[in-house]
Amino acid sequence: MAEACCICAIRPGERAAKDYLTVYFTDRNRAKNPSSDRICTWCSDAIRLRAWYFNPTKQAWVKLFARNWSWLYQGEQLIAPTLGPERGEGKDQLPVVSDLPTRVQMRCWLLDPPEPPFTIAIAESGQKHILPWAMPAYSRDYYPVQFELDSLWVDRVQFAALLSHYEALLGWFSKTEIDSGAWHSDRLIKALGRYEVHDQAIAPHRGTRLLQLLSYVAQKEA
After folding, report:
1. In the chain, % of residues over pLDDT 90
2. Would the CA dihedral through 161, 165, 171, 175 be positive or negative?
3. What is the per-residue pLDDT for 185?
4. How many angstroms separate the Cα of 72 from the Cα of each of 34, 36, 81, 148, 205?
5. 68: helix, strand or coil
6. What is the dihedral of CA 80, 103, 142, 196, to 10 degrees?
7. In sequence order, what are the residues at sequence separation of 6 or more whose Cβ sits closer than 8 angstroms to the Cβ of residue 100?
8. Is there a contact between 39 and 24 (Cβ–Cβ < 8 Å)?
9. Phi and psi, residue 16, nearest 5°
10. Strands, E, within the chain: which ranges?
11. Which distant-in-sequence residues (6+ apart) come within 8 Å of 86 by Cβ?
């Protein structure tokens, strides 16, 4: 039986870790099976992957590292983003990535995840490798979400209720105000008698990564 991957400790290590974990990989201390010198294809591909992306704002092709992306897998099948055929030549011959997930789409993943097993990894900064640390979920009602470098366990019913309260508060306040509980007096006056029930639900979660995840995907009603 193949030795478990040094990074995720979930999948068999099919490749030599030294070929993929270069000096530029700075998260060695997070390895879940550090005694192994093998790495799985899931982790090695995520760490090494770069792709071309057509930036519609700049109307130009740019290279993106996989650490910039958020991910949704169902089993081993990549649902989002989309990886297409390669373009370019030589060292610039890379696959094309498209349909990079939006926060609206991530909100949908969390409220209505696919049938298990699935894996959700949400990039907050775009500066960290997150997919190698993501755990597969085997329930739609209580499941792990990789949010940047934090593994959160989400109760779907609780999350939906908190998100409803959070988005109700967006009718009066900014995300900064909701996250901190420091209200601007002019907006507070307008919300008196209506915002309190929503704030009472949110208040116990201030300072937690769960609230930061809620804040990240919450949408203000148009």
Report:
1. 88
2. negative
3. 95
4. 26, 27, 7, 14, 26
5. helix
6. -170
7. 53, 69, 70, 81
8. no
9. -75, 125
10. 15-16, 38-39, 50-55, 60-65, 71-74, 77-80, 82-87, 94-98, 118-122, 142-147, 150-155
11. 93, 94, 95, 96
Backbone angles phi, psi at 24, to 5 degrees: -80, -10
CA distances from 67 to 42, 112, 174, 175, 222 (A): 14, 24, 28, 25, 31
- pLDDT exceeds cutoff 80 at 24: no
Q: What is the mean pLDDT of residues 101-121?
A: 98
Q: Which of 94, 102, 96, 93 is nearest to 72 (CA)?
A: 102
Q: Is the pLDDT of residue 91 over 90?
A: no
Quick one: how far is CA 98 from the chain centroid? Answer: 17
For residues 211 and 179, the answer to whether their CB atoms sit within 8 Å is yes
Helices (DSSP H) in 8-57: which residue ranges? 41-48
DSSP reduced 3-state for 132? helix
Token pair for residue 167? 């988005």
Full-model pTM: 0.93
- The highest-confidence range among 65-79, 120-134, 200-214, by mean pLDDT, is 200-214
Query: What is the end-to-end Cα distance of the chain in Å, rounded?
Result: 54
Taking residues 88-109, report their average pLDDT.
Answer: 95
Q: Check if the beta carbon of residue 84 is closer than 8 Å to that of residue 126.
A: no
